[in-house]
Amino acid sequence: PVHRTTEVQNARLRLPILAEEQQVMETINENPIVIVAGETGSGKTTQLPQFLYEAGYAQHKMIGVTEPRRVAAIAMSKRVAHEMNLPESEVSYLIRFEGNVTPATRIKFMTDGVLLKEIETDFLLSKYSVIILDEAHERSVYTDILVGLLSRIVPLRHKRGQPLKLIIMSATLRVSDFTENTRLFKIPPPLLKVEARQFPVTIHFQKRTPDDYVAEAYRKTLKIHNKLPEGGILIFVTGQQEVNQLVRKLRRTFPYHHAPTKDVAKNGKVSEEEKEETIDDAASTVEDPKELEFDMKRVIRNIRKSKKKFLAQMALPKINLDDYKLPGDDTEADMHEQPDEDDEQDGLEEDNDDELGLEDESGMGSGQRQPLWVLPLYSLLSSEKQNRIFLPVPDGCRLCVVSTNVAETSLTIPHIKYVVDCGRQKTRLYDKLTGVSAFVVTYTSKASADQRAGRAGRISAGHCYRLYSSAVYNDCFEDFSQPDIQKKPVEDLMLQMRCMGIDRVVHFPFPSPPDQVQLQAAEWRLIVLGALEAAKTENTDLPPAVTRLGHVISRFPVAPRFGKMLALSHQQNLLPYTVCLVAALSVQEVLIETGVQRDEDVAPGANRFHRKRQSWAASGNYQLLGDPMVLLRAVGAAEYAGSQGRLPEFCAANGLRQKAMSEVRKLRVQLTNEINLNVSDVELGVDPELKPPTDAQARFLRQILLAGMGDRVARKVPLADIADKEERRRLKYAYNCADMEEPAFLHVSSVLRQKAPEWVIYQEAYELQNGDSTKMFIRGITAIE
Ligand code: ADP
Ligand code: MG
Question: Residue ranges under compositional bias (Acidic residues) (predicted)?
């Protein structure tokens, strides 16, 4: 029996799902797999585990709940423990490097990555009686893979007479990928809809869509606070830095002065200490981008500290260039939480004007005497600080939460009446050509925007202020976002799944499968790369095994070919160079070359730049690396100039695209941070003054490039065999590439064009329109000795 406090009991009774407990439990008891859909805040995450507990599901085995985000795993386990009056040793959580699970744990909240990892060692999940996959509408890669795996595990457990229940929970009704996919579930699982109380939300679009949405969010919040009646404000921006920036600005404008008397409503829980923390929090947020990087490093270092013990056994082994054998190492699935997105329609009223006199500029600033209780919310925030959104607001204050899209569906913040939505989110985008990923800010989907708006209608009728125009919403917002699994490059996915022990990726029952032909091609490329073993016996029906090198590659958060380059560089202490190269190679058109658009058509100025580059390449060891060395040198020099505040002049003088240079820098920082976070024995910095490599280093770098680009080899078309003079001239710079029928040409911008070496590797082949016909070019050339 569970002993809840009356306060908790009363709060529960207000949740719509409680009225349906009996029906929910009957459906679960009678079906192995059930889908539960209900609007955010209806009580799915906090109540369902309790229903199951009270129905006896935790008696012999555990109830497992997965969340795509760490924030939710921690917050929800604490909330459920509190509601059930049980210690955290019984209602616990486990995220990648942190947790409070004990042998006494009955209900276990975890990230989806953690459960995937458990399947590797215990395929039948024998410790669990039920698995709840929460937030399935987010379509995170790991949750999608879990759905596929569990569709097979559930019948297996049934056969063994130890049934496992699977509950898939979604905040939206868009679940047809689960219910109508007969490869996944032969019998479509029943769908339970939980009705939620949702008050009307009035939508206010802006006439214009400003670029600086953080500044706009600030202005809008001032107006709301100054003019509109009581009710909490929830602001959506895209990332931690924006959250901190906005929190600080709002706190400065509407300071919360510690009231002399009892300053806290209800249970008087906000102590002197809490106050301190708040100030502390503000002080530690910084606006200067350099400091922010530092701040990011600090966060990472803190995480690293706490993960030390987990890492002891997964140190990245040294690998030899000729011999990939490693001392017995095991792999670690990448268990990042999801950054983002998704779903579902609210009954929304539209209106194109800023109503309620909000366009009036007068009365701005802190004319408003009422203090604003401003709280930040994002994934990496400590759980105590996250928890403050649920604590009572100090007397006389208005609640204002500045959040990333964590608050879209994962966490329900109480008392929100106004939503300010920037309409953007941070997404991991993959470059189709290179497979390098970067976080970029994009518009959300219509479904996401409506989900965000819905957060304003939980307690009464609310308002949503969208910081963009209805035209942008209609024209630029997709209806729904694609499942993450279809946005990821398949090579990556293939290697990752194989490292998790999923052998038949091609036959895997994905809810939304990636392209099958592509999966097959990816397998082949991974074999060429040495990440998968070349098939040994022909009659075996098993797919090629993952090599040790493959396991190491999978730890780097980049495309496998770059992963291999990074893995090899690590051994030679060349990581800073390779990181720089990978970053530079992933940004298009770092060097201004006019010939890129039309072959040979060199604009004034381009010649000068070209000669400059030739001289860079010619001096010292640069011939060793060819074009990639030019890139390395360009980035090194530009960053140095940048650190002296001379980036624009330097770029202009040397024919570099300044915007590309800033992108390279961002990528370098990102990649460096991710490597520090994912690879245990590495602590990289981003040195603005990257010294050119020595001869010996350049030789190694060439070997590394060769190893990573082994399938992108080209050989010069042998001119001596060609009798026709015209034809000989036409093919002067032509190369035969491994998997192309037509020859491709060395681009005029290549520093190796004069030399035109017999064998080369290239970073990229691309096609250019040339009048009516097209012509293939290769870029990023390195000569093979
Ligand atoms: P769903 O999963 O359907 O979105 P939840 O179970 O997460 O809904 O939330 C149900 C209710 O519980 C919400 O009104 C939410 O505000 C409240 N709640 C959740 N966590 C806490 C907490 N830590 N403190 C107070 N209320 C909470
Ligand atoms: Mg939930």
Answer: 339-362
In whole angstroms, give the CA distance from residue 333 to residue 319.
Answer: 20
**pTM score, whole prediction:** 0.71
**Sequence letter at residue 729:** R
Cβ neighbours of residue 56 closer than 8 Å, sequence gap 6 or more: none
DSSP-derived letter for residue 56 is: T
The percent of residues in the chain predicted with pLDDT above 90, rounded, is 39
Q: Which two structure tokens, joined as six digits, stand for 648?
A: 């624009």
The angle that helices 240-253 and 272-283 make with each other, rounded to 10 degrees, is 120
Q: Which atom of ligand 1 is nearest to the CA of 410?
A: 4
Facing residues of 170 across strands? 37
Token pair belonging to 220:
């809008």
| Separation of alpha carbons 531 and 517, rounded Å | 19
Q: Letter for the amino acid at 408?
A: E
7, 10, 67, 79, best to mutate for ligand 1 pocket (most atoms within 8 Å of CB): 79
- Looking at the CA of 412, name the nearest ligand: 1
For residue 137, the CA-to-ligand 2 centroid distance in Å is 11
First CA to last CA across the chain, in angstroms?
76
On whether the CB atoms of residues 457 and 445 are closer than 8 A, the answer is no
Report the alpha-carbon distance of residue 135 to residue 37 in Å, rounded: 10
Residue 52 C-alpha to ligand 2 middle, in angstroms?
16
10, 172, 412, 459, best to mutate for ligand 1 pocket (most atoms within 8 Å of CB): 412
What are the Cα distances from residue 412, in Å, to 39, 62, 141, 237, 427? 11, 25, 23, 16, 22
Dump pLDDT digits (tens) for 504-530.
888 899 999 998 888 888 888 898 888
- Tell me the H-state helices in 62-212: 70-84, 112-121, 141-159, 176-179
pLDDT tens digit sequence for 530-570: 899 986 656 567 788 899 889 888 877 677 888 888 888 88
Residues within 6 Å of ligand 1 by CB: 15, 38, 40-47, 75, 79, 390, 412, 414
Question: Tokens 């009464």 appear where?
Answer: 460
Q: Which atom of ligand 1 is nearest to the CA of 414?
A: 16
CB of 473 within 8 A of CB of 446?
Answer: yes
Cα–ligand 2 centroid distance for 343 (angstroms): 13
Measure the CA–CA gap between 332 and 98, rounded to whole angstroms: 15
Query: Separation of 67 CA from ligand 1 center, angstroms?
Result: 14
Taking the centre of ligand 1 as the mean of its atom positions, its distance from the CA of residue 79, in whole angstroms, is: 8
CB neighbours (10 Å) of residue 107?
Answer: 26
Taking CA atoms only, the protein residue closest to ligand 1 atom 25 is: 390
- Helix, coil or strand: residue 559: coil
- How many alpha carbons lie under 13 Å from residue 599 in its C-beta half-sphere? 19
Q: Are 154 and 189 in contact (CB under 8 A)?
A: no
**Which three-class secondary structure state does DSSP give residue 101?**
coil
Q: Which ligand is closest in space to the CA of residue 18?
A: 1
Identity of the residue numbered 319: I
| C-beta of residue 508 within 8 angstroms of C-beta of residue 502 | yes
Query: In the predicted model, is pLDDT for residue 450 greater than 50?
Result: yes
Do 319 and 568 form a contact (C-beta atoms < 8 A)? yes
- Model pLDDT for residues 367-382, shown as the tens digit of each residue: 556 889 999 999 878 7
What are the angstrom distances between the C-alpha of 145 and each of 301, 491, 500, 596, 738?
A: 30, 16, 11, 41, 34
pLDDT digits (tens, 9 = 90+) for 295-349: 344 444 444 443 443 333 333 333 333 333 222 222 222 223 332 222 222 222 2
Q: Which atom of ligand 1 sits closest to the CA of residue 76?
A: 20
Question: Interhelix angle for 516-529 vs 560-571, to 10°?
Answer: 20
pLDDT band at 274 (very low <50, low <70, confident <90, very high): very low
Retrieve residue 686's tokens.
């981003």
Answer for the pair 768, 599: CB distance below 8 angstroms, yes or no. Answer: yes
d(CA 752, CA 346): 59
| Alpha-carbon gap, residue 62 to 50, rounded angstroms | 12
